[in-house]
Amino acid sequence: MAISKVGFSPIVGCDPKVLVLGSMPGEASLKQVQYYAHPYNAFWYIMGGLLHFSVDAAYAERVTQLKKNRIALWDVLQECEREGSLDSSIIGSSIKTNDFSRLLTLHPSIQLIVFNGATAEREFKKRVLPDLDRQHQLIQMIRLPSTSPAMATLSREQKMAQWSVIVEAI
Q: What CA–CA distance (Å, rounded) separates 113 from 137?
């Protein structure tokens, strides 16, 4: 049975340059109220490797490192119905998106939007992009391989190599 899920507020520091977007927090993240809390999700491993901080640091310290490096973090979906954690279980008719017009207006320093996987990109381009102001539609956007353990065709190191484009942007 699908259960209503509600996402988190964005993580945004001063003058972010990069906005990383997932689809919707998984069950482990929702329980811990932390982005990418599943122990096998490669997100913090990749960020720690690229930004030179310990993946074992406390969550608050990892968040501080993102902000310090001008990386913002959010999800495309504000709310949806889903059983479990898989994006493929999201019920499309239940989707409510986050307010990106407001976020991008408040943070005009964002120059790159990075999608953490195909679902985030698809839902953003389908449900959010058409309603954005022209200036926001022109922000550079790229999809990177999902850091989810469900995306197992690439190793963490292979994913990190592709995610290194973030370092060039900050």
A: 11
Name residue 161's amino acid.
A
CB 19 within 8 A of CB 112: yes
Cite the active site residues.
41
Question: Which value, in Å, is the radius of gyration of the alpha carbons in the chain?
Answer: 15
Which residues form the domain of 88?
A: 3-169
Nearest in space to 85 (alpha carbons), one of 16, 130, 150 = 150
The reply to whether the predicted model has a pTM over 0.90 is yes
56: amino acid identity, one letter: D
In sequence order, which residues have a C-beta less than 8 Å from that of residue 26 and are 6 or more positions away?
37, 38, 41, 85, 148
Q: What pLDDT score does 118 carry?
A: 95
**Euclidean distance between the first and final Cα of the chain, in Å?**
42
What is the total count of domains within the chain? 1
Distance CA 152, CA 13 (A): 31
Q: What is the pLDDT of residues 58-103, one digit of tens each?
A: 999 999 999 999 999 999 999 988 888 776 777 878 889 999 999 9
Q: In the chain, which stretches have pLDDT less than 50?
A: none
Give the CATH number for residue 132: 3.40.470.10
